[in-house]
Each structure stands twice: as structure tokens, then as C-alpha cells.
Amino acid sequence: MAENENGQEKTEQPSAKRREEAEEKGQVAKSQELNSVAVIAAMLIVFKFMSDSFGASIKGYMGYMYSESGIYDLNLNSFVDIMAHTMMTTVKVLGPILLTVLLFGIMSNVGQVGLVFADKAMKPDFSKVNPMKGLKRMFSTRSLVELLKGVIKIAIIAYIGYSVLEGFYGSYLIMPSRSVAEIAAFLADSIYEITFKILLALLLMAIADFAYQRYEHEKGLKMTKDEVKDETKQSEGDPKVKSRIKSIMRQRSMDRMMSKVPDATVVVTNPTHFAVALLYDPASKSDAPKVVAKGKNLIALRIKEIAAENNIPVIENKPLARSLYAMVEVDQEIPELLYQAVAEVLSQVFQGNRSRYNQIQGALNG
């Protein structure tokens, strides 16, 4: 189990923020073995398909130098001419090799980690030159794994080289009787076969190394429970503070709602579980009553208490109270579906006021 510097176990999966920070520092799951395989493959491909072209360029250059060596006087102009031919031949031979190696190297890195621009990785980190940390890294599990990989690579190269050369042993015995061109072709084939077999072996090793690097990277990114809590506090705020703020906001909202109860026209109750305060003002632009407060249980009890303190009529109507509570939010007008039921309640309130009673009946039933 991975641990941090304080000895705490890293049991939690890394967050997106943790991964982003690691990428900014250049800490990604990448296998150098795959990069090495890509470079070897690039060189092998170039030599396989362009060896004749390289041979022709080198042969032409050597012929030029040999044929012209007795003609040139050693002066500035001849020196410039020789250097121009030398540079041209060098570019023809090394140019394709370097470009192919560069292309394969980029493809290998992008294939492993994508396009990552790690600015922080370019900044100097003096902790890397700390002798104590250096000794710790030297004897770490990662260092031992790297040492083991090096030993395995040397063993693979030695074994493949020996087995291929042993297979060509009979051919070596007759080399003295061959021409220079035949010897060169034979050596080229031998080198190509050795390199190709080494490449295949290293590719298998690189795939295994990439899987190991991903495993180590994920293990290193894991977080302790305290780190998860700290990150949550930084990104979302302290849960206790947020809870306190929400509590204050709920209380303020409740206070605003309760402050409207004294202005209500009537309170419709369940009678104990629900209470809804309605405001109806026929003189307003809207003819529909509006819910100014609602609640259940303790809040319903408080609404009824405020209504009693302010002489607001409280009428029991279980179906209507439940419907209003479920269908209408605070400060919203009642839907047409409830007009008739609300009209009957308001009619009870204004029975003593004949003109208001008729006005309600006309507004809500008409």
C-alpha cells in the first residue's frame, strides 16, 4: 500500500485536480523503453528501405574525393568546395535517419501520454540535487526495477547476438573466398537480423514496462483521506462553513416567509400537519389569490400561531391544504384547478361582508 511522507496510507483514487497537477509537473505514465524501441524501429526501417541510396551517396562521395584529390590545389575555394560536397552527402545520409527517428519519437510520446505541455517540469527543482533524497531514490523500488530491466536487456541482446552469429558460423568460414560486395551484403543481412530480433524482444519488454509504469503512476497519484478532505475544502469550501451558510440562508428565507403571514387573508390547515397562508386582494391587478407562506409540522404550527396573534382566520380544509402545499410555491398564484375550492374558503371568511362575498364569487367563479 502506498504511503505519503507522513506514513499515511494512500487508499483513495486520485481526483481530476490531482491528475491535472501531475500533468503540469510532467508526471505522466510513460515508458522510456517504448521510446527506445521506437528509435530502433525508425533506424531499422530507414536502413531497410534506403540502404541502397545511402550506399550510392557514400560511394559517389568517395569517388568524387578520390578522382578530384589530384586536381585540387589546397586553397580557400577548394576547401569550400570539398566542405560543400561533404555537407551535402552528410545531409543525404543522416537527414532521413534523424527525421525518421524524430517522427517516431514524437509518435511514441504522443501515443503514450497525448499532447502534454508541462511548464512546471522545465523550472529548476533544487530538491532533486538533495543528497539524502538522491540516496533514497537510489535504493528505492523503482531504482531496483530499472536495474533489473538493464540486466534483462543486456542478457537479451547477448543471447540474440550469440544465437544469430552461431547460425551464420558456417558462412563466416567461407568469407575469405568472397568478394568485398558479398561480404558487405552478408554483414548487412546479419546486422539486420540481429537488430530485428532484438527489436521484437525489446518491444515485448517495453509493453510490459509501460503497463508497470501506468501501475506505478496510478499508485503514486493515490491520495490519503486527509488529502481528499483538504482538496475538497480548497475547491468547494469547508463543509461545516457551507452547512452553516445554508442554515443561515434557510432561516432568513423562513423569516421572510413568516413575516408575510400577518398580511394573509386566510390560513388553510390540515389541521395539524399542513398550513398554507393565502393572500387575496381584489383591488390588485391579479384576481387570483397567492400563497404567501406554507409549511408542515412545526412550521405549520408556527404559521397558525402567527395567524392567531394577528387575528387571521384559520380554516380547516384537509384536501385543499394538501393540494396547495404540493402544487403551489410561495409567492405564486393558485392554479385554476383550485379556484372553486379557494373561493369557498374565502367566502367563509367574508360571509359577513356581502359586497366582498359577491366580489369573490364573481372573480373566482366567473
UniProtKB/TrEMBL annotation:
Location(s), subcellular: Cell membrane
Skewed-composition ranges (Basic and acidic residues): 7-27
Swiss-Prot/TrEMBL keywords: Bacterial flagellum biogenesis, Bacterial flagellum protein export, Cell membrane, Cell projection, Cilium, Flagellum, Membrane, Protein transport, Transmembrane, Transmembrane helix, Transport
PANTHER family linked to this entry: FLAGELLAR BIOSYNTHETIC PROTEIN FLHB
Membrane topology, as annotated: Multi-pass membrane protein
UniProt function note: Required for formation of the rod structure in the basal body of the flagellar apparatus. Together with FliI and FliH, may constitute the export apparatus of flagellin.
Underlying gene: flhB
Chain residue ranges for the region called Disordered: 1-28
Protein name from the UniProt record: Flagellar biosynthetic protein FlhB
TM regions (residue ranges): 34-51, 93-118, 139-162, 194-212
Family: Belongs to the type III secretion exporter family.
NCBIfam families (UniProt xref): flhB
GO biological process, one term: bacterial-type flagellum assembly
One Pfam assignment: Bac_export_2
Family annotation (SUPFAM superfamilies): EscU C-terminal domain-like
GO CC, any one term: plasma membrane
Entry-linked InterPro entries: FlhB, T3SS_substrate_exporter, T3SS_substrate_exporter_C
